[in-house]
Amino acid sequence: MTIAYTFRPMTTADLPLVRRWLGEAHVREWWGDPDEQFALVSGDLDEPAMDQFIVLAGMRPFGYLQCYHLTAWNTGFGPQPEGTRGIDQFIGESDMIARGHGSAFIRQFADAQLQQGLPRIVTDPDALNLRAVRAYEKAGFVRDRMVETPDGPALLMVRAP
Q1: 72 — phi, psi (to 5°)?
Q2: What is the count of structural domains for the chain?
Q3: CA distance 36 to 32
Q4: Quick check: 110 and 88 in contact, CB under 8 A?
Q5: Which residues are registered as beta bridge partners of 93?
Q6: Radius of gyration (C-alpha) of the chain in whole angstroms
Q7: Which of 67, 83, 95, 145 has the most CB within a 10 Å radius?
Q8: With helix as H, strand as E and coil as C, how does 52-119 read?
């Protein structure tokens, strides 16, 4: 059975949910300090170079996804084609982990963005986060190289049309 995911633009009404998710152990493990991350995520709500979404499976919100213009941040990814966007995501609800949702919603989101003309989408999971790396690979991303980001070393992964 294929699930259609919805990417609803995040609003201030979603902030309590996102705050709760950031405090979950499985999110905190890779995203870090919940208070620091909440300040960053909530502070980007009005940032024109950042699109933030609540991911829903059916009617159930279960994840967060952000999609940003690389030129607005010093990512450490090196030169990329004009128009390249970066993504980061997490599944907030622990009962939705390890069930194929991550790779499925990432693929659905990336497919739609590339069909709309984006030349490339990149992401930078921690190389030790094997669950995330596998999810991105299943979603069509390929390993490019290790990069040094402001948050430390990361595995640059690329998806192109």
Answers
A1: -85, -15
A2: 1
A3: 8
A4: no
A5: none
A6: 15
A7: 67
A8: EEEEEECCEEEEEEEEEEHHHCCCCCCCCCCCCEEEEEEECCHHHCCCCHHHHHHHHHHHHHHHCCCC
**117: domain range?**
5-159
Q: Please enumerate in sequence order all residues whose Cβ is within 8 A of that of 23, keeping only pairs 6 or more positions apart, or say none.
A: 34
**CA pair distance 51, 8, nearest whole angstrom:** 10
- Name the residue among 10, 76, 75, 20 with its Cα closest to residue 43: 10
CA pair distance 123, 121, nearest whole angstrom: 7
* Reported confidence tier of residue 155, pLDDT bands at 50, 70, 90: very high
Please provide the average confidence, as pLDDT, over all residues in the chain. 94
pLDDT (tens digit, 9 = 90+) per residue, 60-94? 999 999 999 988 776 789 889 999 999 999 999 99
The three-state secondary structure class of 21 is helix
> In the numeric block, which tokens belong to residue 142?
């390929």
Kindly report the CATH number assigned to the domain that includes residue 51. 3.40.630.30
